[in-house]
Amino acid sequence: xxxxxxxxxxxxxxxxxxxxxxxxxxxxxxxxxxxxxxxxxxxxxxxxxxxxxxxxxxxxxxxxxxxxxxxxxxxxxxxxxxxxxxxxxxxxxxxxxxxxxxxxxxxxxxxxxxxxxxxxxxxxxxxxxxxxxxxxxxxxxxxxxxxxxxxxxxxxxxxxxxxxxxxxxxxxxxxxxxxxxxxxxxxxxxxxxxxxxxxxxxxxxxxxxxxxxxxxxxxxxxxxxxxxxxxxxxxxxxxxxxxxxxxxxxxxxxxxxxxxxxxxxxxxxxxxxxxxxxxxxxxxxxxxxxxxxxxxxxx
Length: 299
Ligand code: GRG
What we know:
By secondary structure, the chain is mostly helical. It is 69% helix and 1% strand. It has helices at 11-29, 37-46, 53-65, 73-94, 111-115, 117-136, 142-153, 158-165, 174-200, 205-232, 235-238, 244-247, 253-275, 285-294; strands at residues 104-105, 108-109. A two-stranded antiparallel sheet has the order 1-2. Geranylgeranyl diphosphate (GRG) is lined by residues 50-51, 53, 87, 90-91, 93-94, 106, 158-159, 162, 185-186, 223, 226. Geranylgeranyl diphosphate binds next to helix 4, helix 8, helix 9 and helix 10.
């Protein structure tokens, strides 16, 4: 990165205001009336903490693509909560004994350790279902929003990525095969976040497409950094168990390319993500900065 466009804002500086907005939206939209108190408590627990990257992308993409005024706040809030609920459900289920079998998430006991396995499964189910309920009530664009999120969270994307990651289906060799897994398990939801934001902002098709590409490439970069942090990070920093990939003999960007190659790939993908924002002009500045800052994150 050259001197004149050295970022003056930190990752915290970008994400914290979005995070504060998100906590308001989450407390409004998470729990339906008549939800049993024990389930509501587990849903709250499983949605606390984290970087709030995906809802932040919804807010930033909505702002960047809304040419006049502000994107409709309720629709944006529903989308921000919906993408985070899908993310949280996937983490709860990923941590289960039948999957990754982990005891630590976001610096605390995982859901099945805290509430038992049955409640953890049901909490994940409730988060997943609530996400689509929120989009279904999002007004005129509801159908489009549901289609986008269903594609990102479904059997050809997020779940396919998990199936491949767990070696439950054949996968292609090499970095191409690995990136196909990353595209599905990580980038699909990150891209859906920017696309949902763009739809809320009433973006033209070229802008929606630019934000889709940005999200896809950013998602690939994000997963490469996640692979790197699994080697270099500590449990204290990450809030989850480091070193799991090598203990489980998982293919990662580091195993495929070596540490130096993985760092280069993350940088290159971050630059490609920022370049995809060209059609947004100056309105894409925060998202471009975010791509750069995320490659240097420590958790
Ligand atoms: C169980 C259907 C199902 C899917 C699980 C998301 C996932 C697929 C597995 C979790 C482990 C993993 C490496 C996922 C890839 C995406 C990723 C890097 C998640 C962590 O996202 P962060 O860092 O987490 O944004 P926080 O806690 O900050 O929200």
